[in-house]
Amino acid sequence: MLSRASGRCLLHQGRRYVYAASLSTQTGQKVITLDNMNPQVKKMEYAVRGPLVIRATAIEKELEAGIEKPFKTVTKANIGDAHAMGQKPITFLRQVLSLCSMPSLLEDSSFPEDAKERARGVLAGCKGTSLGSYSDSPGIEIIRRHVADYIQQRDGQPSSWEDIILCAGASEGIRSIMKLMVQHENGIRPGVMIPIPQYPLYSASIDEYDLHQIGYYLEESTNWGLDMAELERAYTEAKKVCHPKALVVINPGNPTGNVLPRENIEAVIKFAHERKLFLFADEVYQDNIYADGCVFHSFKKVMKELGEPYCHMEMASFMSCSKGYMGECGLRGGYAEVINLDPDVKAMYLKSISAKLCPTTLGQAAMECVVNPPRKGDPSYDQFISEKSAVLSSLAQRAKMVVETFNSVPGMSCNTVQGAMYAFPQIHLPPKAIEAAKAAGQLPDVFYAFQLLENTGICIVPGSGFGQRPGTYHFRTTILPQPEMLSTMLEKFREFHTSFVKRYQ
Amino acid sequence: MLSRASGRCLLHQGRRYVYAASLSTQTGQKVITLDNMNPQVKKMEYAVRGPLVIRATAIEKELEAGIEKPFKTVTKANIGDAHAMGQKPITFLRQVLSLCSMPSLLEDSSFPEDAKERARGVLAGCKGTSLGSYSDSPGIEIIRRHVADYIQQRDGQPSSWEDIILCAGASEGIRSIMKLMVQHENGIRPGVMIPIPQYPLYSASIDEYDLHQIGYYLEESTNWGLDMAELERAYTEAKKVCHPKALVVINPGNPTGNVLPRENIEAVIKFAHERKLFLFADEVYQDNIYADGCVFHSFKKVMKELGEPYCHMEMASFMSCSKGYMGECGLRGGYAEVINLDPDVKAMYLKSISAKLCPTTLGQAAMECVVNPPRKGDPSYDQFISEKSAVLSSLAQRAKMVVETFNSVPGMSCNTVQGAMYAFPQIHLPPKAIEAAKAAGQLPDVFYAFQLLENTGICIVPGSGFGQRPGTYHFRTTILPQPEMLSTMLEKFREFHTSFVKRYQ
Hints:
Two copies of one chain form a homodimer.
Chain A: H1 2-5, E1 9-11, E2 17-19, H2 39-43, H3 51-64, E3 75-76, H4 91-101, H5 113-124, H6 141-155, E4 164-167, H7 170-178, E5 190-196, H8 201-208, E6 212-217, H9 228-239, E7 243-250, H10 262-274, E8 278-282, H11 299-306, E9 315-320, E10 334-339, H12 343-354, H13 361-371, H14 381-408, E11 412-413, E12 422-423, E13 426-427, H15 431-439, H16 444-456, E14 458-459, E15 461-462, E16 475-478, H17 483-503
Helix pairs in contact in A: 4-5, 4-13, 6-13, 7-8, 10-11, 14-17, 15-16, 16-17
């Protein structure tokens, strides 16, 4: 799409790309031009849907049109999109959506009673008992209450439904909170600390809002550990050029797949408290924990358990129905738990989301199923548990399979995928490959990814889209293709990497 | 919600309100405070969900708690939310949503074949044939193609599917385009011309993006006509302080209910062309035309029919599944047709929406039903037409009923509601009422609206939330309560207004 609309799409400098104007452009006559448009929009980038993905989609169309390639299908391992990769929806969740959409089905005896009860509850919370009415801007009250119950159950710590803001996916929630911080003082921008590598929603939003990005490196040698000395270094350096205001932690990690140990979370909270940083806890992969000995600890729980003075810190934690065992990306359901906001700021926050009216009610209904699933003894319980476990155990197997394969390929090394849905292996590229990339006007990892795509049909995202230590090269792949497809993909990967390295030896 | 979170909520200056800090605030210790937060977020307002609505919701809770009031229920005539007011969903649309959510229902013989066909088409367009997968950021291709077909059919002018951007309601589309224009040159802001009265999404977004609002008054004496001399006046005055960049037209009008005649649209297009303005055509009420002799003309159609040089103008037109006969506000479905963009700018636009991943797939499926409804001969056709006509003809009756009643009350006058879903009557307030408002620290129309709410339970939005000529007072009410409820509401209104005027005579 992008490349068609913009003519040719040139990559250069890795993170930055320019679009060559198509011949028909009459820039001088347009109201909005590249020169006068919003510079922050120009600057922002989102690698997960960047030029590689555009090319992958074009290749799919070429294959459809019968053009011969060394492969028959494109494997989109670029995005955490489980259903696109063949994962089946959770039956209970879809039954509830179906019942909510068409309440006459509540009379249908083939639907289980617990799904009906859930649908009745959601509909009773809707104005006019219809999902077609606007909800309150922070969401349907009964669902917000159930989210709070879920969190309370998870953490053993109180949660207030008035702190729960339902949103159209976690991204919307993250952006709406980040937006609150935008105020330059004497030209000095607020700074937001983000891990490197990071999920590019953060860098894109930071650019769009003209904030200052403070990257702290995760430590590859300790399985992408969050090192406190590195956090301190990043903060101290950034303090010279911006006002550090917030700290983002992604746990389990995207793209890194690490799971933070509790002591680490405690240290991060203390660090943020001492430096007066607002905490963003991106916890959308909280159900995706695979490695032995790894446990998910929410930042909220740890902060509350630390007691005074930490328990009063401002924090927002995010959850989504797109990940976990649900994988319902298209439904756009999510929530933010926003705690300890100044009440006046909270009022402004609620006002700011009111102009967007409300998050999709069907996405809210999906979140209801996530936080209020069938309980033991309910008619749907057995099927629900069996579907949920099947997804999660298969993901755990695939996480292992990916890591083992990559580590068995000479010139590649991959940390354990403890959680989330991605591996972020390092690739060791021969100097001649780096030169070839330079000659092609591409960053080495981008060059590698394009070569991989054109030769195997596998679409991954180069490490430069997430950030990496200078001189190192990585890529992110999801672990989401179904086992057989994944196995084929990994074999192709091995062949490609081996011949790529050989070619540039 | 807002008032609980923020302590007491004080109204002053009409459009601006401040929140009194609650006692528990420890502003000095918070990371985000009223002083250091985003000033644009502080400034923006959205009256349709403002303090009156917050009070109305509080009153509902008081009634539930058994507190005695002069009324038994609150009537929320503040927002265009048809289902909340008792309108029933269109069966076909909900069948399609239900089938998409639970494809096993495709085997159920009680669903009509055309609904199944639509669901199969949508699912075939989804990755992994699941609505749970992300769509492309501008939407599912097959639905974009159907939107283009619908527009082509409507206008008799070509429409390209690549110009169609599906979005989570029209609001999101409007904001995403407006955002492109944000670039201050030497401290001078781009200006956006909007009608006064206007739908406050525009003023809120203009404030949030720090653009300059250029209001042009609609002419109440000619049924809220769009007067070209007034457009010229507003432009000329604004040119001194900003760079006018865009012109917003809402047709049919919100809150004014006017429908623009074709000559008027032609004149507006020529005006925008001469002054190099980007056109925003807010056409979400295109199905809601009631008055004899009124016809909906899309800006796109008129622009294309005008031929050179107008047919190359940059324009975005917006549509939604929230209004029309569907009233599916909660589903968040909508589209923008964005034409004649500079291709490089379009590429940037597509990039900018990619970080938001995609609009809700179920909202997209709802739009599919709107643009691709049952055709003559299809099994659902008769029921569909009967439901659609029933809604539209009842709305036409209610539009008449509202206007006739208001015009029969001394001290009120109301223009014909030619289209959309609202009346915007003028109220003539006695000087003593204006003094009483002043003493209460409220604008006169806000004072009136609060008195109405507390005495009758009717919630409307004061004219100051939309803008009005200085010294005039209005309010917006929807025409959406079902006929019996509307009739009761209008009788209460008459009694209230009469006694209000008497009291302050």
